[in-house]
Amino acid sequence: MLLPFNLADLGAVPPTVLNWQSVFNMYLVLGVSGAVFAYGLMFFYILNGRRKSPPARRGGNGGGRGNLLTLIVVTGIVVAAFIAGVEGNAYMWDAPQNLPTLTITVHAYQWGWNFTYPDGYTSTDVLTVPANTTIILNVTSEDVFHDLGIPMFDVKADAIPGQWDALWFVATQTGSYPYAIRCYELCGAGHAYMTANLSVLTPAAFSSWYTHHEPRGVG
User: What's the number of CA atoms in the CB half-sphere (13 Å) around residue 64?
Assistant: First the structure.
């Protein structure tokens, strides 16, 4: 499995990465299985048809059973893929309930990010979060379309004026990650520089940081 950013070196793999990889592997297996079945069936009919002489009679339903079996198998694969896909992706939209949760409001603007914490404190272009905590980002934009993405967690959310989108992630490794947050929607001349740093602290260190910063209203 390919890991983004430098988490392979740190030995920490966020759960969002593992689950997206699991969903990808599921679709890969279903896709390859469907392709093998389709090509196998095609070659079977080609080879089987070459062995037989042209039919002496017209009409009839000699291939009816084979066609019905093919329809059942193909329908089963499609239904299984649909159900598995819905169930697999549902996890990514529902944040886990077995961890502490921190919800942060994100306002995108040309060309930066404001992160507002529950006490009203706003940080510009630096997101500070505790490790082993479900971080929920509620994202919107103050001007044009933006897209907040964190490659190391395989998560993205659109930032649209007048609308809200959300994403969640769990950081399992403390550290400072420069430019970990980026805009993935072309939003003007400063798009390439619309980044933010991510700081992951231990829960105790984050509690101390959160207690001692100066609360203030949204700018």
Answer: 4
Class of domain 101-212: mainly beta
Per-residue pLDDT of the chain (219 residues; tens, 9 = 90+): 333 444 444 345 566 777 777 777 777 887 787 788 778 877 877 777 666 655 555 555 555 666 677 777 778 777 877 777 776 666 666 666 778 889 999 999 999 999 999 999 999 999 999 999 999 999 999 999 999 999 988 889 999 999 999 989 999 899 999 999 999 999 999 999 999 999 999 999 999 999 887 665 443
Q: Provide the whole-model pTM.
A: 0.68
Alpha-carbon separation of residue 77 from 19, 24, 28, 134, 157 (angstroms): 22, 17, 13, 35, 31
Which one-letter amino acid corresponds to residue 142? E
What's the alpha-carbon Rg for the chain, to the nearest Å? 25
Which uninterrupted H or E stretch holds 113?
A: strand 112-116
The tally of CA atoms less than 13 A away on the side-chain side of residue 58 is 0
Q: With contact defined as beta carbons under 8 Å apart, do 44 and 73 qualify?
A: no
- β-partners of residue 170 are 134
Taking alpha carbons only, the member of 31, 8, 9 closest to residue 18 is 8
Backbone dihedral region of 206: left (phi > 0), alpha (psi from -120 to 50 degrees) or beta? alpha
